[in-house]
TrEMBL record:
Location, primary (coarse class): cytoplasm
Database matches in PANTHER family: 5'-NUCLEOTIDASE SURE, 5'_3'-NUCLEOTIDASE SURE
Protein name as it appears in the record: 5'-nucleotidase SurE
Species name: Canicola haemoglobinophilus
Top EC class for this record: hydrolase
Binding site for a divalent metal cation: D8, D9, S39, N91
EC number(s) reported in the record: 3.1.3.5
Length: 246
């Protein structure tokens, strides 16, 4: 098996290094990741400047672009040979509920699936037990098969930040959702000019049993199938009726 591994925390992040080490126990792994932290880049592609892959001494590649850039380049002619699976992570922090809209970790996996390959995104609810998340991914990958997911679906995995033997199990979940993000943070630079920071993400608003929030909060790994079709099918009939009345 040949795995393409990327992330959004950057090629020097502990999560991707830990995961690469684990996956290389049973697969060929090529790492193509951003040269710096590109968290919350979503599925953005770099179109107004060139991308410059750099091969590191260990054979990995860093790119001056987004997570989606990395996977797009890797699968569209930059790498030679067959890739069997795209894996993105391990992200420092969860990607639960609405987070998947912004997440560069999830976006890298979606780009892989968009280009025809099965893909997994994996995140850790913290910054300590990366080995736990890596071990779980390493156990799940050999069980994958071609008919597990439909076209353009990925697996989004979130792991509690616990030692491996304290994780209670794995649950298939649907996405919960968060409340609105906190207000922006206004400051001034040394010249007295106003600058702004995006505020912290919102708290979990729907963390009922069955959601990814509930699983991780209670010590379980959450696995959620994610799709690119965001159509709200349940509202289509109501919209059509509204148009007909108008």
């Amino acid at each position: 098996m040949h795995i393409l591994l990327s992330n959004d925390d950057g090629i020097q992040a502990e999560g991707i290094k830990t995961l690469a080490k684990e996956l290389r126990k049973f697969a060929q792994v090529t790492v193509v990741a951003p040269d710096r932290n590109r968290s919350a880049a979503s599925s953005s592609l770099t179109l107004i400047e060139p991308l410059r892959p750099m091969k590191l001494d260990n054979g990995d590649y860093s790119i001056n672009g987004t997570p989606a850039d990395c996977v797009h380049l890797a699968l569209n002619g930059f790498l030679s040979g067959q890739i069997d699976l795209v894996v993105s992570g391990i992200n420092a922090g969860v990607n639960l509920g609405d987070d998947v809209i912004y997440s560069g970790t999830v976006a890298a996996a979606l780009e892989g699936r968009h280009l025809g390959l099965p893909a997994i995104a994996v995140s850790l609810d913290g910054r300590q037990h990366y080995e736990s998340a890596a071990r779980i991914v390493g156990e799940l990958i050999p069980k994958l098969h071609g008919q597990l997911l439909k076209s353009r679906e990925i697996i989004n995995i979130n792991v509690p930040d616990l030692p491996y033997d304290q994780i209670k199990g794995i649950k298939v979940c649907h996405l919960g959702y968060r409340s609105a993000a906190a207000d922006i943070i206004k400051q001034q630079d040394p010249r007295g000019e106003d600058i702004y920071w995006i505020g912290p993400i919102g708290l979990a608003e729907n963390e009922a049993e069955g959601t990814d929030f509930h699983a991780v909060k209670n010590g379980y790994v959450s696995i959620t199938p994610i799709q690119t079709d965001m159509t709200a099918y349940h509202s289509m009939a109501a919209l059509q009726q509204w148009l007909n009345k108008e």
